[in-house]
Amino acid sequence: GRRNKLLPSPKKQARNPLILRTVASAFAFHRLAVVWCAPTMSMKGVVVGLMCALLLVTVGRVLSIEGTVLLSVVTNVLACLLSRDETYYDLTGSATHLAVVVTSFLGAPATKRQVLASFAAAVWAARLGTFLFLRMAKDGRDSRFDKVRTKPIAFFAVWLIQALWVVVIELPVVLLNRVGGGGDDDDPPLGSLRDVAGFGLWVAGFALEVAADTQKFVFRCQHKDAFMRRGLWRYSRHPNFAGEILLWTGLALVATSATPESRAPWLSPAFTALILTKVSGIPPLEKS
Question: 143: how many CB neighbours lie within 10 A of its CB?
Fold first, then answer.
């Protein structure tokens, strides 16, 4: 009797199957990590991996984009399992971005706003992924992986971070592409002040990021260990990151043209700023 009182009722169990499965999966993953990689694993990697998994499940469930989450996770997990190093990490990220954008667009009514926003996201992803791959191929390694190459769980967690990054960053495009046809009240005609400002910010941010990356790449080819203080880098320590945050702010603004009441698209520039300033952008660069 007492044992039964401590258990949730069948109605409550049926009401929260996703939460129960998530918790069970988290504990199972933790036990597997301990048994499989105890000698070489990083506890920090386990924690980060579990947090990413829970965030992915939460975002997918709350925003009803489970298909997008699944696509991103499967792509990155397969790439991680097939890779022994970080050679194709950035190319995989770019491919995941493109896959998410294309699949979301294929199910959209293809309004002008959706076409332009999807095209902008695809151009950015293709450019950045190609640039980062060429830079890594030139350097021979990616310094972001220096502490995780020999730690399987931490290495896997980095790929899960990328899966989460793709899902959250592409929220403006994914959510915009779910809006109904051009004649609906939910999708006003292209040309509002938010559209003009949003696409203007995207153009400015993209131009800033491309120019900054190009300037630094050329400089590093000529001065390998010198500190960059030319061009845009005279005015900012990280102008390329500023451009990336700016362009995703623009696409979030465009997305809210069709869904003004939605706040979810703003997670994209916020998460971009968090990743670049606190995780994989500025911190490793400042240490080096």
Answer: 13
Report whether 194 contacts 253 (CB < 8 A): yes
- Distance CA(245)–CA(238), nearest Å, equals 11
The predicted structure's pLDDT at residue 233: 87
Q: Which two tokens stand for residue 125?
A: 């992803």
Look up residue 69 and give its two tokens: 């989450």
Average pLDDT over residues 206-217: 94
Query: What pTM does this model have?
Result: 0.80
Which of 157, 159, 164 minimizes the C-alpha distance to 42?
Answer: 157
Determine contact, residues 202/120, Cβ cutoff 8 Å: yes
The DSSP H or E segment spanning 234 is none
Q: Please list, in sequence order, all residues whose beta carbon lies within 8 angstroms of the beta carbon of residue 167, skipping any fewer than 6 positions away.
A: 56, 59, 60, 65, 68, 69, 72, 100
